Amino acid sequence: MATYKRKKNKRMRAETTHGWGSKKKHRGAGNRGGKGMAGTGKRADQKKPTILNLYGNSYYGKKGFKRPKEVQHHPITLNLDFLEEHLDSYVAQGLITKQADAYLVDLHKLGYSKLLGKGTPRHKIHLKAASASDTARKKIQEAGGTILP
Length: 149
Prior knowledge:
- Helix content is 26%, strand content 16%.
- The chain is rod-shaped.
- The protein is built from six helices and seven strands, in the order H-H-E-H-H-E-E-H-E-E-E-H-E.
């Protein structure tokens, strides 16, 4: 036959804290420590075997990332001095052509999108580029070359 056991809260009538010590303890959501499976990571090592059995190793740790909606693409740049240094090797590879005293350069073919003005050109360069800085334009025109869009 089942025995009847009174509930603790009935016995604790008129007791302010109901057996939980200070008034501050055992109050509100701040003492709960989260909802559901919260705290099952590092703090609750005793739960790890159960969770691993139920959910596997993928339960713990970070997984992937959310790709940003818009990715900013920065132009791939090339300086004049680098281009000057490598003119002959680019001609040997067939990436640019040499006509008389001038070089015909297509930056897109080389894998660059913008020309920057560091350095001084020693050769006449006719350049096809998506964009170029003002100093690069000025230096190439002073050397007798042109920049086409």
